[in-house]
Amino acid sequence: MTETISVSAVIPTRNRPELLRRAIEAILHQEGDNVHEVVVVFDQSDPDESLQDLSPNIPIRAVPNTNTPGLAGARNTGIDTATGEWIAFCDDDDVWLPDKLVRQCRALAIHQETLFAVGSVIITYGDKRVHRQSELQTIEVGDLLRDRIMEAHPSTYLTRRAAIEQWGPVDEALPGGYAEDYDWLLRAARVRPVLVVPEAVTEVEWHPDSYFGNRWATIDSALEFFVDKTPEFANEPRGLARIVGQRAFAQAAMGQTRRALSSAWQTFRLDWRQPRAYIVPVVASRIVSADRLVKWANATGRGF
What we know:
Layout: E1 7-13, H1 17-28, E2 35-42, E3 60-64, H2 71-81, E4 86-89, E5 95-96, H3 100-110, E6 116-125, E7 128-132, E8 138-139, H4 141-146, E9 158-160, H5 180-191, E10 194-205, H6 216-228, H7 237-253, H8 257-270, H9 276-284, H10 290-299
Parallel strand pairs: 1-2, 1-4, 2-3, 6-10
Antiparallel strand pairs: 4-9, 5-10, 6-7, 6-9, 8-10
Helix pairs in contact: 6-7, 7-8, 7-9, 8-9
């Protein structure tokens, strides 16, 4: 494999025109000649045809989401529309670093068996910037069960288009589309280990108006759905404790004290080292608000 590949960049978007144009400009100014096209999928909004004027050389295709409304359906529309040999995701509020594709292509040239590659990220939250770098060289299913591996953000995903049929499209049945990227990455890892590029390749922006910022009911139900469809969690108590703890936090944030405390106790029994087992009772008792803890966690670049 050479260090130049044909990449279709897929950007799902909804009502963030200024951030969207920033994301597109970063893709258009990638080093090397890897960008074959940019596919912008407009979810529950009309495509902006004027985006095609941003580049005379690289096609920019603005299309409506023709699948289930939401991020998962929009990603699948982008996959179906793309014509490049490889597909790379970029969320509309994120920015590829200039050498994103060059770094990944160099790694692919060495590891030619690779079907899916990710990279590390720089997380920005207000005036905070945190470099999240994975220590792994490849990601396997067991790694993803134990840890979400937030460094492997969807805006770093790069995958062979022809290989997607081996693990299937993004799951549009997940409630609200929450954790669809995590589920897709885990299913890809079942087929073959995912290659990790250690350097930062994308700048990820976290901000207060995040789509899932306060959608606690959606997060709770989506994580329940995700665990039910992932049988491997039955043999990975540490990973299951993490998910149950996330659900407990969401329940506490919604004021469902009894459910939250029950889930926190289950979290403790699965893994007494899981921090959410101790944080949830504090939130449930209103000593500290869920929003305050989320803001603190985001400022550290870890998230909740």
